[in-house]
């Protein structure tokens, strides 16, 4: 069952890795979210809502977000 917006919260985390712009809309307003029940982290675009892969660490979520192909 997919998690809804109520199941995640924004985190004020300073990443060790600089985050790339959103690969779908090119917005730079992206940030870390914690999926509360799954205890995983993801990067989410605050403009279009695109979400990167969920991972157990901030750094891994950031690394995978930055590997996504640009649209």
Plain-language structure description:
With 71 residues, the protein is α+β, with helices and mostly antiparallel strands. It has one domain. Helix content is 13%, strand content 21%. The mean pLDDT is 82.
Provide keyphrases for this structure.
3 strands, three-stranded antiparallel sheet, 71 residues, alpha+beta
SSE arrangement:
Blueprint: E1 8-10, E2 30-35, E3 40-45, H1 58-66
Antiparallel strand pairs: 1-2, 2-3
> Overall mean pLDDT score?
82
Q: Any low-confidence stretches, pLDDT <50, length ≥5?
A: none
**Biggest sheet details:** 3 strands, antiparallel
Approximately how much helix is present in the residues?
10-25%
Number of helices: 1
The gist of it:
This protein is of the alpha+beta class and 71 residues long.
């Amino acid at each position: 069952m997919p998690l809804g917006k109520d199941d995640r919260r924004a985190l004020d985390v300073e990443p060790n890795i600089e985050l790339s712009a959103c690969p779908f809309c090119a917005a730079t307003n992206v940030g870390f979210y914690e999926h509360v029940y799954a205890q995983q982290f993801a990067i989410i675009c605050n403009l279009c809502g695109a979400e990167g892969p969920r991972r157990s660490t901030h750094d891994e979520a950031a690394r995978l977000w930055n590997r996504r192909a640009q649209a």
